């Protein structure tokens, strides 16, 4: 069995996160993102100290002291930023969630999403696996426009998601 730990990303994770962005961008049919580089991310503010990316570190199940060993592998990320909604005030906007296919179904995506209290996010209207995950978590499809679907988790579903973190 394997285990993982979710933590705020650090600059030392940048190469792994950029690698995953490139992999995910190929999957998302976006050529521009495949051209991302570590210097480019740093130059555009990707090294901010605020918790803007939450990568998932996946490690073999072993002694607790090995969880911080240098052999870990970053297998996913959740990119979000703080925004403002004129109707509800401050919100967290979920820009991107990616978990490598071979690590899906292990709770990593849910753990990444559980790190924030209330957020809105967009995804491509053809991304059925992501839609199924968000719907399973209690997200609501609130609008469809410009080939994007906007969802949000709130109320009881958000409280239940937050409780998963504290258990």
From TrEMBL:
<dbReference type="InterPro" id="IPR016181">
    <property type="entry name" value="Acyl_CoA_acyltransferase"/>
</dbReference>
<dbReference type="InterPro" id="IPR000182">
    <property type="entry name" value="GNAT_dom"/>
</dbReference>
<keyword id="KW-0012">Acyltransferase</keyword>
<protein>
    <recommendedName>
        <fullName>N-acetyltransferase domain-containing protein</fullName>
    </recommendedName>
</protein>
<dbReference type="InterPro" id="IPR051016">
    <property type="entry name" value="Diverse_Substrate_AcTransf"/>
</dbReference>
<dbReference type="GO" id="GO:0008080">
    <property type="term" value="F:N-acetyltransferase activity"/>
</dbReference>
<comment type="similarity">
    <text>Belongs to the acetyltransferase family.</text>
</comment>
<keyword id="KW-0808">Transferase</keyword>
<feature type="domain" description="N-acetyltransferase">
    <location>
        <begin position="4"/>
        <end position="160"/>
    </location>
</feature>
<dbReference type="Pfam" id="PF00583">
    <property type="entry name" value="Acetyltransf_1"/>
</dbReference>
């Amino acid at each position: 069995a394997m285990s993982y730990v979710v933590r705020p990303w650090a600059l030392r994770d940048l190469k792994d996160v950029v690698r995953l962005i490139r992999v995910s961008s190929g999957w998302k049919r976006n050529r521009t993102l495949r051209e991302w580089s570590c210097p480019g991310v740093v130059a555009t503010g990707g090294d901010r100290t605020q918790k803007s990316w939450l990568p998932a570190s996946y490690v073999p199940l072993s002694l607790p002291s090995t969880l911080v060993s240098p052999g870990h592998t970053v297998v996913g990320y959740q990119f979000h930023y703080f925004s403002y909604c004129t109707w509800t005030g401050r919100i967290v906007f979920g820009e991107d969630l990616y978990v490598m296919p071979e690590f899906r179904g292990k709770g990593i995506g849910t753990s990444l999403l559980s790190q924030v209290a209330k957020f809105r996010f967009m995804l491509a209207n053809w991304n059925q696996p992501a839609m199924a995950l968000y719907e399973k978590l209690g997200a609501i499809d609130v609008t469809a426009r410009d080939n994007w679907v906007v969802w949000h988790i709130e109320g009881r579903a958000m409280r239940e998601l937050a409780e998963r973190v504290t258990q």
